[in-house]
């Protein structure tokens, strides 16, 4: 197993969110402590749920869908926490707001990159459908066209998506921009910042795994050193060790495991490690020589079996790509709606703060 990259330093978005636990920090009321503990315990449960029982499931679109669902839930819960804290936008430090808006722009950009890759992968389904249609006929002309469609699918899946090239810089900027101003001496503010720390850790983790899986580049993985003083630290550490470790091991050896069989992917010119995609490619590899070389009486049954298998696996791939694309779109909408709500509240706050000024800034006399 390859050695993991040097972990990033712990990032504290607005000073040290754990300072509240020290004697010098603001003391939390039982209500605030309960809100924080409830949030962190729920986050720990979500992180534990993401830890796959089978390491081979890490590089699968199905696991990625679960990861994005979990991330959407975390971002939704933080909105609820903000409401329960009763901390209006007017009490937010301007630097908090600037950082939040900057982070949301980066998250929207990375969502667009992921969506474009999922759309690109799903476009390959058209080539598979065309091949399956041609394979229904035994005429030599149709079989040649089927080979051409399968070739086109391979080339399409193996091509690179330029939108993914910026993911690494976006992820690094998300980490580097988080060590920023200290939170004011506010118990509510410190609860919010500590909860936001958890949200950001899970966000960077999930997005880095997606970037690595789509680009087949373990350099997009980010290891975060989370202080063990928080309730979800162990759950996160276990998850990060399992997922990032497995991805690095697979990428370093150029291998993947499907149905217990280890195959050298790079030697076959493959550039994907996604489980459902590789299952389709395996069937394509079985079918291709039968189509090219022709089938004798003993190969007809094997051809029929592979043909049916390709149809099932191609449909499964298309469906899971659609499901994952929906989850990425949901995350995009959650981030966008939160950003819009903040901007709307800021505009309302400005209006309420100075209700007697006209558009030119002069006082309005009633």
From TrEMBL:
Belongs to the ROH1 family. One of its GO terms (cellular component) is membrane. The keyword Methyltransferase does not apply. This is BPS1-like protein. It is found in: Membrane. InterPro entries: ROH1-like (IPR008511). Its main location: membrane. It is a single-pass membrane protein. It comes from Populus deltoides. It holds the Pfam family ROH1-like. The keyword Calcium does not apply. Signal peptide: none annotated.
